Amino acid sequence: MRPLKWERSTGIYLLVFSFFLLVPFFYDNRTILFLMTQIFIFGIFAMSYDLLLGFTGIVSFGHAMFFGIGAYSVSVIIDRNEPTMGYLLLGTIVGIVIAGVVSLLAGLLTLRLKSHFYAMLTLALAGLFLVLAEKWRGVTGGNDGFTMQIPEFFKDRGHLYLTCLVSLIVLFFLVRRFTQSPTGRVVMAIRENEQRVESIGFSIMFYKVAVSVISGIVASIAGVLYILSLRFVDTSVFATDVTLDALLMTIIGGVGTLVGPLIGAGLIEVAHHYLSELASVHWIFERWLILFGIVYILAVIFFPRGIVGSLQYMWAKRSAKKKSSSKEKDLAS
Amino acid sequence: MDLLLSLTVNGLATGMLIFLLAAGLTLIFGLMDVLNFAHGGLFAWGAYSGVWVYDLTGNFFVAIIGAIVTGLLLGLLTEYLIIRPVYGNHVQQILITLGFMIVLSEMLKVVFGPDQKAAQPPAFMDGSFMVGDVILIKYRLFIILVGALVYAITFYILRKTKIGLIVRAGVMDKEMVQSLGINIRLVFMLVFMVGSALAALGGVLLAPYSGVIYAEMGMEFAILAFIVVVIGGMGSFTGSLFAAILVGLAQSFMAYYYSDLSLAVNMLLMVSVLVFRPQGLFTGKG
User: Fold this and answer.
1) Residue A115, min C-alpha distance to chain B (Å)
2) b/e string for B4-21 if b means 16 or more Cβ within 10 A?
3) ipTM > 0.85 for the complex
């Protein structure tokens, strides 16, 4: 382990996070707190996606299944037993284990092959889980889903808000620590040039599978929190829309930046919230997915760095310019 | 025995439908190295436009032509707008075509309405033959026939004609073919259009087979097509045919004996291929 280095960005993140920590103590608006909670949950989810797409260059089209696995594990276990903290913890652990095993298998099967295979297998697997949730009515309640009781502590929306935010902060710094660790550097090198990393002697397969598992586990935690905020589960947690949301958040926010997906999650969730209200104005807003799809396509072609990525690029270019101009001055004098 | 035979015919017909979808996919992938996740969307558009034309004209063959024309036009549009900016970059291709898939299936709901639509086979193909005690449904035999025909024609064009030679040479060395005075970009665009037309043909043939069409069917069948392409070997045309028939038969028998597991059995086939023969049952182009 390298000693932890204090970076300026860490301070900025802490400052922003502590601002959000104080919000529920001053501003107790039901709708806004709920919206913010959703943003934190999908922020975690999008962050887990960025670990795959942005840091390792793996495209998954079935990320919703990890989200759904976390969601169903917790809700089934709580519903069958009692809504206590103990069973919540048990459900979370079960979700994490299942998500870990599924992502391990998916990774082992396809990550030695070309990038298409992982995308196709995860898409098909997510389809399988969706069918399973629809057909296995005795456990999942089928299409209708079911509502459940949750531990008393989380019924307070302030508590829930803080829980989601603290989870986000903890996971953010853990994932960031991972990406800055030597292992994380190898992972990023794989994204840049796989053959070269392999020829240096690293086992690419091991690193890719490891990232796939970590990403799946983090996504399942997002699913658990999602259930706590809704107190209701149905098959929509496995839908392609959920994966698409994660994709959009990551791409628009900035691939491979970790902060980008959080900002993307904020934008997309706010857009969801207001666009669904617009549906009563004009029917075309019921089909807001078209709008998202078009924005997404344009972003892939024209704005591949995303918001944070573009800002970082501009910043790097400016400081490079400054450096070269100061060098010229040194030479002149 | 009768049951086995009719399950086999069902399986073959489903397999041929999947083959039509997978054929376009594998053609585009094998020849152009582009994995098109929007393929299912083209399939669904073929189904909707075909049914629309059929309701308008009442002629099944005009409906098929209508679907093929839709497929060609959408293929042209897709290649020009979506694929051309991202040639050579796999990750971007995968990402962008999934986005286009969403747009295509949502556009279906805007144009044709969000509800599912009924579709009937034309009168002269409704009904069945009786051979001894076996009931053979006419429309299913027709699908098997069309599938076999499409396979034969495509195989002939790719293997025995000059166009096929140019396409195959273009895959091997783009610049060389270009320098011989052949517009390889145009050739690739045509390949993409033909692939899309095959998907649309599959869509319009599926409509009377399943009886209803809906916007999400694109994604459902696309997953089957991906499974087929993995099993058959990516880019192998003959492999796709065999894998599609295999998947069709497995699904037909599974649906009869243990209906809940029919998607699972396909996944199982795909997983075992990935474990034991990751390059697919057939390799090479052709």
Assistant:
1) 7
2) eebbebbbbbbbbbbbbb
3) no
For the residues B204-217, what does the mean pLDDT come to? 86
Question: Of A119, A127, A240, which has the smallest distance from its Cβ to B263's Cβ?
Answer: A127
DSSP B51-64: HHHHHHH--HHHHH
Across chain B, which distance is largest between two alpha carbons, in Å? Answer: 62
Q: Which two tokens stand for residue B265?
A: 């059995």
B100 → closest Cβ in A53, A61, A297 = A297
pLDDT of A288 strictly over 60: yes
Residue the block writes with tokens 């273009």: B170
pLDDT of residue B160: 85
Q: How many whole angstroms separate alpha carbon A216 and alpha carbon B246?
A: 32
CA angle, A206 as apex, A203 and A209 as ends, to 5°? 145
The rounded Cα A25 to chain-centroid distance in angstroms is: 27
Q: Nearest-CA distance from A30 to chain B in Å?
A: 32
Q: What is the distance between the alpha carbons of residues B11 and A317, in angstroms, rounded to a whole number? A: 60
Chain B: residue whose CA lies nearest to A295: B99
How many beta-carbon pairs below 8 A join chains A and B?
Answer: 93
The answer to whether A308 and A263 are in contact (CB under 8 A) is yes
Does the pTM surpass 0.80? The reply is yes
